[in-house]
Amino acid sequence: MNAGIFKPLKFRSFRSLFGAQIFSDLGNWLDLITLQVIVAYHWGLDEMAIAAVIIALGLPWVIIGPFASVFVDRLPKKQMMVICLFLRILFVGGLFFAPNLYVLLIFVFLKGTVAGIYDPARQSMIRFTIPDDHLPEAVTLSQLSSNTMKIMGPALGGGIIALFGAKSPFLFEAVGFFIAILLLLTLPNMDEQETNAKNKSKNKNRDNGHFWKELLDGIKHISYTPLLKSSVILSSVAFFIIFLYDGLFVFIAQNLGFTEGNFGLLISALGLGSVSGSLLMGNWTHWKRKPLHLMSSAFLFSGSLIITIGLGSIGIVNLPQFGWVIGAFFLGFMSSGESAPYGFVLQSETPKHMMGRVSAVATSLQTFSMLIAPAAGSLLAKWIGVSIVLIGAGGATCLLGTIVLIFIARNDVQEKHFQA
């Protein structure tokens, strides 16, 4: 990663927006481990309960995100973001005091809904805080925060649980959202009058058909751009495989001998590996010429690690806990070889004016895969056991990587694209 990516931070408005994003992104993921620990360890519930939590987390991003990405440009974004953060603090309080799974699921869904509205507003707000010639760096930096917090949030949550107790991450999360509000309040009042005037003039001729046309434009762009379409499909399938066993990982950890106290160590190793991989991807950029090659190769390596962990959970492979922590580190490391190329393709293959819609549609497709996978994983776990599900997921990951490598070798998709 070169220093150019940090150039947008010299603009005060963008610094405020980016700082708020860091705390917001962290809040999206900080309580992921907390929810699983409460459900599995404290309430003693089974795989179906974990699956229900994950579905409640992701459903708003599917049903809210794509539609919000069209409407958000017609609303005052700074005020909308502040209101969303206040609501998220309230909903985190609801999670803290939730007495049972049903109340917990309601607040999980509400929190996800507000996050699904906040994120498109943040994406759109970038254009009001940065000159156009710095926009590519700003968007890349923004995406780096989002991807990094997906890694660091659960890891940090596991560490906080080990130090302060199962529900303590909710308190840290609420404080983080409050800091994000303070940062957003330092944003100057953006001069959106000209933009709003243009929108109003367009709105006179705007009807429901126009709304659907804007939404469909984002879908069509993905469909008509081969490299982008391949990356979105590949990442969506990968997300399905990952979340097939993700909700079961806490039970795998139990089989490997990890307790409530050191479960966070395993998750922290995953996070540390992912951050290390992201730093490598940022400094070694030759993969940008062949991003799909790197994604599929990473699938092969990570799939092999997943199979090994699955074999360990049924006693075929025996390692000390430190060995499994090292394995989790490399599993996280390989995940960067999957996410970084996808982020690069999404940015480089999408026009700036369509970034919100295209990213929202892509996220919706990925999240839909993530939603149906936990239910399938929990049903399979009841039928054949969590260890066999993990082994099968690892095998599917290896197969996916092999198929893609064969496909791109035969069709030479990326070389033709970058030579054009």
Automatic annotation (TrEMBL):
Transmembrane feature ranges: 21-43, 49-73, 85-110, 170-190, 232-253, 265-282, 294-316, 322-346, 358-377, 383-409
Location of the protein in the cell: Cell membrane
Domain of life per record: Bacteria
Keyword Magnesium attached: no
Keyword vocabulary terms for this entry: Cell membrane, Membrane, Transmembrane, Transmembrane helix, Transport
Subcellular location, principal: membrane
Membrane topology annotation: Multi-pass membrane protein
Ranges for domain Major facilitator superfamily (MFS) profile: 1-413
PANTHER family on file: INTEGRAL MEMBRANE EFFLUX PROTEIN-RELATED, MAJOR FACILITATOR SUPERFAMILY ASSOCIATED DOMAIN-CONTAINING PROTEIN
Name listed for the protein in its UniProt record: MFS-type transporter YfiS
Biological source species: Siminovitchia terrae (Bacillus terrae)
